[in-house]
Amino acid sequence: MSDTVESAVIVAIDGPAGTGKSSTSKAVAAALGLRYLDTGAQYRAITWWMIANGVDTADPAAIATAAGKPVIVSGTDPAAPTIAVDGEDVSAPIRTQEVSAKVSAVSAVPEVRSRITALQRSIAAEARGGIVVEGRDIGTTVLPDAHLKVFLTASPEARAARRTAELAGADLAATREALIKRDAADSSRKTSPLAKADDAVEVDTTELTLTQVVARVTELVEQRRTALR
Ligand code: DC
Q1: Which residues contact 32 (CB under 8 A, 6 or more apart)?
Q2: Domain 2-222's class?
Q3: What is the pTM of this model?
Q4: Most buried of 17, 79, 102, 155, CB within 10 angstroms?
Q5: Which protein residue has the closest C-alpha to ligand 1 atom 6?
Q6: Euclidean distance between CA atoms 46 and 51, whole angstroms
Q7: What are the domain boundaries of the chain?
Q8: Per-residue pLDDT tens over the stretch 145-179
Q9: What angle in degrees, to the nearest 10, is found between the helix axes of 97-107 and 172-188?
Q10: In angstroms, what is the span from residue 43 Cα to ligand 1's centroid?
Q11: Burial bucket for residue 36 (CB in 10 Å: 0-12, 13-18, 19+)
């Protein structure tokens, strides 16, 4: 029995942008032999498709009508995660500033959320070896029965500094403003906002290195697996 439970551990990692969610989730999944799903990439992919197909991202009705059209496929190998829309690799174009600026509006539309949430649940259910799923509403809405829920936080200054370092040529003050704006939109939307689940473990990463955060979360997953045995 222990093998079955151990191999199917489901981990939800939520938090705002720039807290180290992606780096942490990938590293923990790789260390423990789990699959990895970046749900932000899925929302970015559907946003990219809306822009590429001339859908007005300021028009929720137009987004709702088109929400079922793009075929989004996520590759869940933590060493090389992939994201494709209608067969096209969109890993690079989903990271542009235009997509970042529009993704909150697109992901707030209920038809988008229900479609992407269903996709996320089916990917998690099929991940026989267990999975780390990162996002904003994973512990609260997508996978409320996850074996472990982690909520990562960090000060706005630390988050902006990390994002600026990731994006070549980015301006610190502008990045900080954009992050704060996106968090406010993601936290205040009506349908499954960014929120900490009551049973999530909060980890403040402001003063921690990535190695320390990965060690802490890996330890939490291992403790949970032991408790499940
Ligand atoms: O993790 P990220 O910054 O790539 O996410 C991009 C956007 O996608 C984020 O601003 C809000 C949205 N998102 C969401 O609404 N729900 C999720 N589970 C993940 C991301």
Answers
A1: 9, 130, 218, 221, 222
A2: alpha beta
A3: 0.94
A4: 17
A5: 40
A6: 9
A7: 2-222
A8: 999 999 999 999 999 998 888 877 788 899 899 88
A9: 10
A10: 6
A11: buried
